[in-house]
Amino acid sequence: MQLLTGKEVTEAVYVDLKKKTIDFIEEHGFAPTLAVILVGNDPASQSYVKGKKKACISLGFGHRDYSLPEDTSQEELLSLVKTLNADSSVHGILVQLPLPKGLDENLVIATIDSRKDVDGFHPETVGKLLIGLPCFVSCTPKGVLEILDYYKIETQGKHVVVLGRSNIVGKPMAALLMQKGRDATVTVCHSKTKNLKEITKLADILISAIGKPFFVTADMVKPDSVIIDVGINRIEDATQKRGYRLVGDVDFEHVKENCLAITPVPGGVGVMTIAMLMKNTFQAAMQLSQKDNQ
Ligand code: NDP
Fold this sequence. Notes:
The chain is α/β, with parallel strands linked by helices. The protein has helices at residues 6-28, 43-59, 74-86, 105-111, 123-131, 139-150, 170-178, 196-200, 252-255, 270-293; strands at residues 2-3, 33-39, 62-68, 92-95, 159-163, 185-189, 205-208, 226-229, 233-236, 244-247, 261-262. Residues 140, 163-166, 168-170, 189-193, 196, 209-212, 230-233, 269-270, 273 line the site of NADPH dihydro-nicotinamide-adenine-dinucleotide phosphate.
């Protein structure tokens, strides 16, 4: 069994990005810059935002953090997004989700200038992704592809089963894998899928993004298949200082005996997401600065 560690992949991504950032700053006189908007006090969101800032600093990117109170109005949030759209020193804009109740996520995302949509959630970006045009690929599915590429796991002609059909993971994951060039045969499963085990057992590559700890058990997996665990779930653990630990959707200890390769949780897909956000921010800065020069 091969362990597909995201940590190893991100190290390679960061080494490459650091070099490119030095060259970028030398050529343009400014750094790729990411603006992150956080509304409210959700502890998980606060910690994700912190991680993004840390990554920006370590790469030499510029970063702008906007921490808005829980009772921020729709108009105030849209106004900030529009200000950042118009600010040529900002190349990527990310609104940390979920937003507090009462704020319209779809409207907020659609208001971001699609050229700065480094999360890849804007409807225009999603449309481009579906028809195979160049675009910002949303960070988690992009991270999965990066892992597959890094470990030279071929997808052409393979049967990939994706568990989950969310807009941020399952759907873009399936769309990317079925594109020409990736050439996988993709089955997408969700909570209404019948005979799930019969389907997962057909998978050459099984990608789980459902958010249920230990859901994928050894008897659901074809021997010698590749298992990608996107799930990040908290389970109680009194031995941990914080009272919980993180596990994936896959029953790792048992499934690992039966498969060819598997991503761990933590240290697998999870660590890829911020690295891919940094890649997208660099790409946005490149594209916007080329346009500025025209
Ligand atoms: P959502 O809750 O938006 O979607 C979950 C999906 O799983 C839905 O499509 C749901 O089906 C499906 N599902 C739920 N129960 C079952 C079941 N019993 N059988 C089959 N399908 C089922 O979750 P996300 O896509 O946002 O996230 C999924 C997991 O990935 C979470 O653990 C999350 O923490 C993690 N995640 C990790 C990221 C990272 O690595 N950085 C980033 C994003 C997410 P239905 O549509 O019918 O309800």
